[in-house]
Hints:
two-stranded antiparallel ribbon; elongated; 4 helices
Amino acid sequence: MSFLKEFKEFAMRGNVLDLAVGVVIGAAFGKITTTLVDQIIMPPIGLLIGGVDFSQWKWVLRPADPAQKITEVAIGFGAFINTIIQFLIIAFAVFLLIKVVNRLVQKKEAEPAAPAADVVLLTEIRDLLKNK
């Protein structure tokens, strides 16, 4: 039973739960980014360069032949371009998030710590003794 207890303690640690939440939110963010790129960013770019849909760009290695039941073999580099754009958007969003967190951490570190009440009291006593 100690193995199960140890596993339970491991699984209930704050870091593991934070990681699980991060994975779930990351997956949802990935879907949002995919939709953003495929449905919002790429159509206007395709329109500007002549009505091209990047996701349909491919290099056909072997065309399909329905009569012989041969399926098409193709390299879909348009989908790869979309994925690269999605990665760049996610990387930029993570960069901005880290930049904000670093600023918040630096502000907390920059604030000088107030002296403890004991230190203030001892300083006053020292000053009074010096003046006598």
